[in-house]
Specification:
mainly alpha, 2 domains, 70% helix, 0% strand, 3 helices, 99 residues, single chain
């Protein structure tokens, strides 16, 4: 049997998720150029990690469950990588050929 986080832990994680939800909104209102999407994705990744590790309690699950979660992360990285390679390779788009 695995341990269950305390109510205090759940409240802290919920407050952190709420804070970063508002932070994402307010940062999106600021024009940071190409960095808006990078910051939004970093915040989303952090929030996703909190949900997975605390609300889904992945750290106390079986190795097979952890493997499937890691496979999901790997697949997400592959898809985002393909998206960004396609995006920066387009000459006709405003954000294309950034490097």
């Amino acid at each position: 049997m695995h341990s269950v986080p305390s109510v205090r832990t759940y409240v802290i994680v919920w407050a952190t998720l709420t804070f970063f939800t508002f932070a994402t909104y307010y940062i999106a209102q600021i024009d940071l150029g190409q960095w808006n999407i990078v910051i939004a994705l970093l915040i989303a990744f952090f929030k996703m990690s909190l949900v997975i590790f605390f609300f889904m309690n992945l750290k106390a699950e079986s190795p097979l469950t952890k493997l499937f979660a890691a496979g999901g992360f790997f697949w997400m990285i592959l898809l985002l990588g393909q998206f960004f390679v396609d995006y920066i390779s387009r000459d006709w788009m405003p954000g294309g050929k950034m490097w």
